[in-house]
Amino acid sequence: MKQSIIQHIQSCLPCQQHNISHTKKSDQFNPIPTPEGPFQLIGIDYCDPFKPTSRGNQYVLCITDYFTKWMTAIALPDCSAQTTAQTLFNNYICQYDVPLAILSDQGTHFKNHLWNP
């Protein structure tokens, strides 16, 4: 029966038109460069959403230095581009240094006019 289903799906035009592959081919991945020191390469991403705290925070912005593996986690009320940029500046750049490169998952809070003028 399994083989019959597979054959049907492979020969069914509508099935093939709506068959979306959710995996990337290995040649489509970009390797992450190895930094030679701290503050050269950081990664940023959100862990969300959580139940709102008494202060109204429900998102956590995680900033990781790829050289030292040091991670900074900051609780935030929203994950807007404005909040993300301001938090990165105030809670990372002003405390540590300006990174040479920032890696992200290209979420909407990282991919807009604030990040790409």
Automatic annotation (TrEMBL):
Pfam families, A to Z: rve
GO annotation (BP), single: DNA integration
InterPro entries associated with the record: Integrase_cat-core (IPR001584), Retrovirus_Pol_polyprotein (IPR050951), RNaseH-like_sf (IPR012337), RNaseH_sf (IPR036397)
SUPFAM superfamilies (alphabetical): Ribonuclease H-like
Protein name (database record): Integrase catalytic domain-containing protein
Phylogenetic classification of the source organism: Eukaryota, Metazoa, Spiralia, Gnathifera, Rotifera
Integrase catalytic domain location: 34-117
GO molecular function ontology, one term from the record: nucleic acid binding
